[in-house]
Amino acid sequence: MMRKRLAIAQERDQQHPPGAAGVEGQEDQDNVVEIQSIRHLIDELERAEDKLVVVSFHATWCAACRKVQPLVQDEVKGREDVVLLKVRYDTNKQICKTLGVRKLPYFHFYRGSEGKLEDFSASAKTFHRIKEAIAQHGTPRCTLGENHIVPDELQELVGRPQDPK
């Protein structure tokens, strides 16, 4: 049963690759990025600087993920102060394992010099948690500290020296 669902999801992905033009909800959202690798995730976290970064861990075979993903994208649509990074479990298992993701859908919230702010699992039924986290952490701030947005665990995976803390 699980193999059949995975095969269907893989076939769908081959026809409509994630992040490709024409995929529903992706057309004009410059602040939504489908992560392809550990290096890509690190680069996008650094590029975000002091914006709120929502990292959404999901899978195509996960029904709860398919329901909540459009809600999250709608929530960040048009917001220049928020970036949504989508990490597909199937193609980024090492990232998920390293960051302790054991349940899908799962969300991490990061912000510049503050680093990781919080993380939790949420579904369409508990979507209010995501909205509340974006409202709480998405407020404008003036920070003077160094950017510590990239988790040490990810830096270790690519062999980068960690920021002294």
Describe the structure.
By secondary structure, the chain is α/β, with parallel strands linked by helices. The protein has one domain (30-157): Glutaredoxin (3-Layer(aba) Sandwich), CATH 3.40.30. The protein is 37% helix and 19% strand. It has 6 helices and 5 strands. It has a 5-stranded mixed sheet with strand order 1-3-2-4-5, with helices on both faces. Helix 3 (63-76) links the parallel strand 2 (52-58) and strand 3 (82-88). The longest helix is centred in the first third of the chain and has 14 residues, at 2-15. The chain starts with a helix and ends in an 8-residue tail after the last helix.
In short:
Residues 9-163 form the Thioredoxin domain. The protein is an alpha/beta fold. 37% of the residues lie in helices and 19% in strands.
Write the layout of secondary structure elements.
Blueprint: H1 2-15, E1 32-35, H2 38-47, E2 52-58, H3 63-76, E3 82-88, H4 93-98, E4 106-111, E5 115-121, H5 127-137, H6 152-157
Parallel strand pairs: 1-3, 2-3
Antiparallel strand pairs: 2-4, 4-5
Provide tags for this entry.
alpha/beta, Glutaredoxin, five-stranded mixed β-sheet, 6 helices, Thioredoxin-like_sf, Thioredoxin, Thioredoxin_domain
Number of helices: 6
Contiguous runs where pLDDT drops below 50 for at least 5 residues: 4-27
Q: Main beta sheet: strand number and arrangement?
A: 5 strands, mixed
Question: What value does the average pLDDT take?
Answer: 81
Q: Give the terminus-to-terminus CA distance.
A: 47 Å
Which strands sit side by side, in order, in the main sheet? 1-3-2-4-5
Percent range of helical residues: 25-40%
Strand content: 15-25%
CATH topology: Glutaredoxin
DSSP, total strands = 5
Question: Total domains, how many?
Answer: 1
Instruction: Specify Rg, calculated over alpha carbons.
Output: 16 Å
Shape: globular
CATH superfamily: Glutaredoxin
Pfam family, one: Thioredoxin
Organism: Chloropicon primus
InterPro entries: Thioredoxin-like_sf, Thioredoxin_CS, Thioredoxin_domain
Region (Disordered): 7-27
